[in-house]
Amino acid sequence: MSEQQKKEPGATAPQAQNEPLPGVLPAQHWAQIAQTQDPDDDADSAIEDNASSTASLSSSILQYRTIHGRTYHSDRGNAEYWASNDERQNEALDIIHHVLTLSHDGKLHLAPLGDNVEKVIDIGTGTGIWAIDFADAHPNAKVVGTEISPIQPSWVPPNLEFQMDDCTQDWTFEENSYDFVHIRWLFGSIADWTALFKQAYKTLKPGGYIETQEPSIRFESDDGTVNEKTAMGQFGKIFVEGGKKMGRTMTVLEDGIQRKALEEAGFEAIEEANFKTPIGSWPHDPKQKEIARFQQLAVEQDTEGTMIYVAALAGWSKEEVTVYISQLRREFRSQAIHGYYRRKVLWARKPGAA
């Protein structure tokens, strides 16, 4: 990102674009739909304005940006993350963690780690919930979680520490010293995935494992109920085109970037698992229904904080985002729409003796 493109920490919003995002229906489309719908429909719930404030602290990492009343990480270095970092978004991230754990039958990782794992890094730890659970499950392991925003709790297991760090910069961990590097949900924030995985490769011991989990930003259906005219069908388009304007890809899964980058970084024994994550209450299978309901809860917890930054790139106002989200929520709650998104988990080993 050039110096001209960088915004000062107090910036209020990304620069709005006059041109619509390619393939994205204009914001006015959703306002027209809203005028034809029943205003008493309980699926159309208003979004509360929950502007966050931060104390005036000397640390630059706490100089959050504010966009339409929501806070985002300090715009310093090469880090670029599009979701809010305030309490509403953090709660949504914790629910997503529950969704992923349910989907994986309670497992915190799919990589075949041994019982004697000693040192672990969680890159982009977010609220730290995965790192906390892993540290609790492995009390003899040293766990480090890195993040660009200090949003983690103070009370954590004694074998866990959090570090404020930008994973797109050179890592400062000792080389050949860690057993496991865990990375998930960084789509739209990494400019060079091969460089990221090369940093992990350098940090891992010979025989150590890396695991990367990324979702598709696109909602799909197997029966055509999610299509380009639905709000769910437009959701992915908004993010894909917005990501292009940021210079960050949102299509990590679709483009096979994880496997390519792992191979280019030098990893071997690459394996993968693919998942469909439903949203709503439409699945008949009890486990999938539970996953789908929690996924809906996660998205509805803070759709606004997820969308505002990217939608602002298209020139959408907060009010226009609110109208669109109302339609999106109607579709999430509709039994007639059978939406899901795809996820891909890959794990690989650094060559050498374990």
From TrEMBL:
Annotated region (Disordered), positions in chain: 1-52
Molecular function, one GO term: methyltransferase activity
Acidic residues compositional bias, start-end: 38-47
Pfam families, sorted: Methyltransf_23 (PF13489)
Similarity comment: Belongs to the methyltransferase superfamily. LaeA methyltransferase family.
Record protein name field: Methyltransferase domain-containing protein
